[in-house]
């Protein structure tokens, strides 16, 4: 009987693994939203984004503000270590930790600047505090054509 596991996101994971044991669903085949799990909290002053980035270093993460969109990117190269300190012939049998590049986009509005956003990376969690700013009303400028006479 095929019952979904409480540890899998897909009902068909158990079926696929039982039917095709040589088929290995690679971790990097997951959608970016599954890799960069994000919590968004709102209070009266603004928003707090908490993005899970386990195993990444601060230097491997960037946050860019472009046209009112916050783009959070992370990139890590695969570990090419085939030997450890205790063995001269050790090699990886399986690697499940993510390596590669990923990014997520969040529209935050045109009235927020990079100086308004406070970011902190601690214990594998990137926390971004984004203040609420009222939209600036555009002042209508009158452009009159001078009339001679």
Structure commentary:
The chain has 149 residues and is mainly β. It has two domains: 1-30, no CATH class; 32-131, Immunoglobulin-like (Sandwich), CATH 2.60.40. The chain is 7% helix and 31% strand. The chain is built from two helices and seven strands. It has helices at 13-19, 32-35, and strands at residues 38-42, 46-52, 61-66, 69-76, 100-107, 118-122, 125-131. The chain has a four-stranded antiparallel β-sheet with strand order 1-2-7-6, with no helix packed on it. It is elongated, with a radius of gyration of 24 Å.
> Which value, in Å, is the CA radius of gyration?
24 Å
β-strand amount: 25-35%
**What would you call the shape?**
elongated
Annotated CATH topology of the largest domain? Immunoglobulin-like
- Strand numbers in spatial order across the main sheet: 1-2-7-6
Mean pLDDT: 76
Unreliable stretches: 1-9, 11-28
Measure the end-to-end span. 93 Å
* Helix run count: 2
Biggest beta sheet summary? 4 strands, antiparallel
* Helix coverage percent: under 10%
Overall structural domain count: 2
Number of beta-strand segments? 7
* H/E series: HHEEEEEEE
CATH architecture annotation name of the largest domain? Sandwich
**Class per helix and strand makeup:** mainly beta
CATH class of the largest domain: Mainly Beta
């Amino acid at each position: 009987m095929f019952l979904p596991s409480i540890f899998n996101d897909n009902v068909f994971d158990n079926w696929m693994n039982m039917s095709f044991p040589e088929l290995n669903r690679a971790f990097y085949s997951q959608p970016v939203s599954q890799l960069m799990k994000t919590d968004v909290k709102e209070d009266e002053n603004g928003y707090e984004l908490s993005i899970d980035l386990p195993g990444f270093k601060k230097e491997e993460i960037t946050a860019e503000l472009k046209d009112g969109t916050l783009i959070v990117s992370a990139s890590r190269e695969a570990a090419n270590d085939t030997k450890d300190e205790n063995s001269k012939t050790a090699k990886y049998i399986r690697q499940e930790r993510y390596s590669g590049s990923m990014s997520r986009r969040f529209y935050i509005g045109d009235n927020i600047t990079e100086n308004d956003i406070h970011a902190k990376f601690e214990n594998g969690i990137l926390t971004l505090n984004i203040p609420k700013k009222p939209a600036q009303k555009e002042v209508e400028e009158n452009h009159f054509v001078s009339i001679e006479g």
